[in-house]
Amino acid sequence: MSLAVARKPLRADAARNVDKIITAARQCFREFGPEVPLQTIAATAGVGPATLFRNFADKEELVLAALNRQLRLTVDPVVDGALADIDAAAGLLRVLEALMDAASADANLLGAVAGRRELLTGITGSLMDSISVLLVRGQGQGSLRADISMTDMFRLLAMLIGVVDTMEPGSDAWRRPLALVEDAIRTVRPTRPLPAHVPVPSTPGTGPHLG
Length: 211
Prior knowledge:
It holds the Pfam family TetR_N. By secondary structure, the chain is mostly helical. It has helices spanning 12-32, 38-45, 49-55, 59-74, 76-84, 88-105, 107-111, 116-123, 125-141, 150-162, 175-185.
């Protein structure tokens, strides 16, 4: 699910610098939060600020590139497996689980982008195409509600990602809301109990903000 970040082919040394910057960005956002200065990221990567800005025009572009890499590594393989699974509903839920796991792990990256709607559109481009395929298959198999549209799925996904605002980065508190979404979209509610309740942190705001 490639983000819309157009790039020309890079020389080997330039590609190494980009990789170091993205790795440093994830480390710095996790350690220092969404307001970490780009200069700190450059220093952590071992490159000068000019090198960082030569590759990334601003913080948002760097964040999108970092999220793009993590989604390729962690979510794309799950999507491929889901599309090959005979059970479309189970595959769809695994995709949502993988996406929420990635969102939780990189909550401060999400929080670094003020425009939530633009960010969501960027990180879900081809992912929504795959979700559409799984939704139609699941509806055809009778396991997913026939009255659910892709507009519904997009909004449910936005709601789920918004859950990251209400929990500590890295927490799995998203599992309970995801289970509630599963209950809502399946034709037959699963018999399993809901995952454990996780209280909202007493000092919310460590994650991304709705914009």
